[in-house]
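Course assignment 3, question 2. Fill in each field.
Student: A.L.
Task: Predict the tertiary structure for the chain below.
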Amino acid sequence: MNELYKKYKFMEAQLVRGRDSLKVKLPDIKKTLEAVKLLQEKHAEEDEEKRSLQTNFLISDNIWAKAKVANDTGKVGLWLGANVMVEYTFDEAIIILEKNLGNAISRLESTDGDIEYLKDQITTTEVNIARIYNQTVSNKQKTGQQEEKKQ
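Answer field:
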């Protein structure tokens, strides 16, 4: 029972770590999706001046610079991970980001369900361990009483 308990606790720790990672990724995906939609809206403007985007960006710790970014290509680069960036059209990027957001939300819900199931199993295992311990104590007391009677 102790081995089973340790396995459950290990699995729970892994799932909690995965859930925390997903909770960090969700806001980033949402912000990226909003940024791509903003770029798409700006790109649809007729006036060249309204198409460009003025922004602040971080150069290094506590040093920011203002920049005017031209928005006339109709494309955006998305980080895929492992130092890989791929250029997509706005529509393609929005589709990919919405799909990623949906997948992340469903994985988070699934992980939460798995964690709840494991918590139930852990509680059951703890109760069983306590019962085994109590039975062992009871058996030792009975054995001790029987040995006293024999003497």
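Instructor remarks: The mean pLDDT is 92. The chain has three helices and four strands.
Grade: pending
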